[in-house]
């Protein structure tokens, strides 16, 4: 059997910790008070049961953390791998699970007993588990006692039962022997038993009450621990909530600053670059306008030249005139479209309708005066009705209603006008009336140009067909652009050299004029796009925005400083609260703070009540056990009852025990004794470097044979003649030999807790080497505080 790992849920200082025993020779390192002995006691507790009551020298290992008592071992046996789990101290539960199949063993206690059988807990502790106290005690034993100890390891079961049988025989004889007072022990025990029975009802009632209080105490302890845990959690939440509440004014300031800063779309650097781009576009527009004026003068000049009488074909002249007419109309139309587009872009809802005279009159008049007069008239009417005359008051009231109705109608009219001329105010709307009227005239002119363009296109097409220049059906499929392009090419091919050159130059200038118009249009659109990105329509507003950016940057920096002061986590918590509850956020914070304080006060009141209740119960329990009557009576009754029931049968068992044991055990253990001595002789020879070769058992005494280097003879010593250091080695040899021989079918792990501290350095190194050799076939768990062994796969308890 091998222990692969242990998991401690709660045992002494250890809670929720796992130790993996990866090696056959597994060193567990730790200084004093590191928990080495606790780990060893845990392994024995899982295998044989945890201590259930506090006795002399019996430690309970109650978890310091309050975790569940117990834990589990993972065992590797010849039949497979199993997890053995034992939880609880007073009412522990044992579970054995086959890890290969996941099934639980139906009778775990029997399964565990069968695994270690025929050994019991005392046998396992005597053979497989030992520590420094046992080896230290060897030096204090007399010669005879030391021989008896050694013999107990050569014949472990026979020696123990022989001594037990002898003691039983003496006890049996004394049980019925007459004492010095002339009375027999059995009669005295019977009278004592009857007396205890008479006292039992009262003590039984106390016992029941004590058990009830004990159960309540455990429940109160658990409830008090839960209350304390909840109190700590509430204190943490209260601290966090107070921090959030105190930080709220800063957060509000940060939100306001962020909102103010967020109204700007660009930072200072981008605005400076944009200013440069706007200035460049403005300069480019001025230059393009100058180029357009010069180009138009050249066009007019060439047209005048071409208008002079020339000897041209009538068809060519008619086609050329109609083409020029169409091109002129297109240029005018393009200019008007651009002007209307730029002007209409200033308004949110497109080009508004011009104000009528009535609307201008309404804007010029003040509704405030009308409203004031109406209000005064209404108050006066109420006073007159109440004091003077109802009919007169009613007449004045009608006048007041008319004035107020007019004021409300004027207000609605002004609102409609303001919506139509957004984003301009009323004063700006009035200032733009001439421009709006001009725009609507240009709109009408544009419609007229559309009609003229269609007539010019039709005239050009009719001339081409009339003079049989282009087929009518083919012409019907052309667009205006195709018609113009084809006509230009045809005219160029028909003109004479001078006329052709002049016309070509004219067409080039016309094309240049279109290109310049397109560039001017692009320049205006680019400028308008930049301004619209910043929410302005005029350059003066844009430059004002640039000047305001410095102040906005200072606002952003201040908001960032507040954000850093709050911290990212706290800022995000407050932001989430603000997004969910808005203006009610601070009230929510204060309500939550108040609720947490009330919860904390309530839990502390509960704790005080629980502590008082616990103190009252402990006081009552102390009174119940003040004279020790409950515990002593139950123990005496159990002892007396058990003794009286078994006295007669025990007498026979005690007297006959010695002969029964002699027959049952001595013959069976001769073979085991021989194996133990052979194995111990080998271990002793290795530990003493061949000095002591053989151990012999003769007439109930143990002898050791020394191999002398001076001669071929061998000397034999009784164990009492050996030095104390050699006796230590002999004790270890027999102990290890029995551990490796006794349970050969399923070798059990050996648990050694700092058992070598009494050996000198040389003997200690030799013993460590032997233990590591034994560990090749049988797992050894070795607890030590020696830092030299804290290497490789050693488990360092200080790391847990």
Automatic annotation (TrEMBL):
Transmembrane regions: 376-405
Keyword Membrane: yes
Keyword field: Coiled coil, Membrane, Transmembrane, Transmembrane helix
Presence of keyword Mitochondrion: no
Gene3D superfamilies (UniProt xref): P-loop containing nucleotide triphosphate hydrolases
Segments forming a coiled coil: 186-230, 586-650
Name this protein carries in UniProt: AAA domain-containing protein
The species this protein was found in: Fructobacillus durionis
């Amino acid at each position: 059997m091998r222990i692969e790992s242990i998991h401690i849920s709660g045992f002494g200082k250890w809670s929720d910790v796992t130790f993996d025993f990866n090696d056959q020779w597994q060193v567990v390192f730790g200084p004093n008070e590191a928990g080495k002995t606790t780990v060893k006691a845990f392994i024995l507790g899982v295998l044989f049961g945890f201590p259930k009551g506090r006795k002399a020298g019996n430690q309970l290992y109650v978890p310091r953390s309050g975790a569940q008592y117990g834990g589990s071992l993972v065992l590797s046996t010849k039949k497979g791998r199993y997890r053995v789990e034992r939880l609880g101290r007073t009412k522990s539960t044992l579970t054995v699970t086959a890890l290969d199949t996941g099934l639980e063993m139906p009778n775990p206690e029997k399964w565990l007993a069968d695994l270690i059988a025929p050994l019991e807990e005392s046998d396992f502790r005597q053979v497989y588990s030992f520590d420094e106290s046992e080896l230290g005690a060897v030096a204090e034993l007399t010669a005879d006692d030391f021989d008896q100890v050694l013999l107990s390891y050569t014949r472990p079961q026979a020696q123990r039962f022989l001594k037990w049988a002898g003691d039983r025989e003496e006890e049996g004889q004394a049980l019925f022997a007459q004492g010095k007072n002339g009375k027999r022990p059995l009669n005295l025990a019977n009278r004592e038993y009857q007396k205890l029975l008479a006292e039992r009802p009262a003590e039984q009632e106390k016992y029941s009450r004590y058990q009830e209080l004990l159960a309540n105490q455990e429940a109160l302890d658990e409830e008090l621990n839960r209350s304390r845990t909840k109190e700590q959690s509430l204190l943490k939440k209260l601290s966090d909530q107070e921090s959030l509440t105190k930080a709220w004014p800063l957060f509000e300031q940060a939100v306001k600053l962020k909102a103010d800063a967020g109204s700007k779309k660009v930072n200072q650097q981008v605005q400076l670059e944009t200013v440069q781009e706007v200035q460049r576009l403005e300069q480019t527009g001025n230059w393009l306008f100058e180029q357009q004026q010069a180009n138009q003068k050249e066009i007019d000049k060439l047209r005048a030249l071409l208008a002079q009488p020339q000897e041209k074909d009538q068809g060519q002249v008619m086609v050329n005139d109609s083409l020029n007419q169409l091109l002129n109309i297109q240029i005018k139309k393009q200019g008007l479209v651009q002007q209307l587009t730029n002007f209409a872009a200033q308004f949110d809802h497109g080009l508004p309708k011009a104000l009528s005279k009535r609307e201008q009159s309404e804007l010029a008049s003040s509704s405030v005066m009308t409203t004031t007069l109406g209000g005064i008239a209404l108050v006066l009417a109420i006073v007159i009705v109440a004091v003077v005359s109802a009919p007169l008051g009613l007449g004045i009231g009608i006048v007041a209603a008319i004035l107020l109705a007019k004021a409300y109608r004027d207000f609605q009219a002004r609102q409609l006008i303001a919506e139509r001329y957004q984003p301009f105010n009323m004063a700006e709307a009035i200032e733009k009336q001439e421009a709006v009227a001009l725009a609507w005239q240009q709109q009408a002119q544009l419609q007229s140009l559309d009609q003229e363009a269609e007539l010019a296109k039709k005239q050009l097409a009719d001339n081409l067909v009339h003079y049989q220049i282009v087929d009518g059906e083919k012409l019907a499929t052309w667009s205006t652009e195709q018609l113009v392009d084809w006509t230009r090419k045809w005219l160029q091919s028909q003109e004479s050299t001078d006329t052709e050159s002049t016309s070509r130059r004219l067409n080039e200038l016309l094309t240049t004029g279109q290109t310049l118009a397109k560039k001017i249009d692009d320049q205006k659109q680019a400028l308008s796009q930049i301004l619209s990105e910043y929410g302005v329509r005029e350059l003066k507003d844009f430059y004002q925005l640039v000047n305001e950016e410095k102040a906005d940057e200072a606002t952003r920096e201040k908001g960032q400083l507040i954000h850093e002061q709050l911290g990212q986590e706290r800022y995000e918590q407050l932001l989430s609260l603000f997004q969910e509850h808005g203006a009610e956020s601070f009230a929510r914070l204060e309500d939550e703070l108040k609720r947490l304080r009330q919860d904390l006060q309530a839990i502390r009141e509960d704790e005080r009540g629980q502590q008082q209740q616990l103190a009252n119960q402990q006081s009552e329990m102390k009174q119940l056990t003040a004279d020790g009557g409950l515990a002593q009576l139950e123990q005496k009754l159990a002892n007396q009852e058990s003794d009286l029931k078994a006295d007669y049968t025990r007498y026979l068992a005690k007297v006959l025990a010695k002969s029964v044991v002699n027959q049952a055990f001595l013959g069976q253990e001769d073979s085991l004794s021989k194996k133990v001595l052979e194995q111990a002789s080998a271990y002793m020879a290795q530990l003493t470097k061949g000095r002591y070769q053989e151990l012999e058992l003769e007439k109930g005494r143990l002898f050791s044979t020394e191999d002398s280097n001076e001669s071929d003879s061998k000397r034999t010593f009784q164990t009492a003649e050996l030095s104390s250091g050699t006796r230590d080695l002999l004790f270890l040899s027999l102990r290890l030999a029995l551990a490796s021989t006794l349970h050969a079918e399923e070798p059990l792990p050996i648990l050694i807790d700092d058992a070598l501290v009494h050996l000198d350095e040389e003997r200690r190194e030799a013993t460590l080497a032997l233990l590591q050799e034994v560990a090749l076939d049988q797992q050894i768990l070795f607890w030590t505080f020696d830092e030299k062994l804290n290497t490789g796969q050693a488990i360092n308890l200080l790391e847990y």
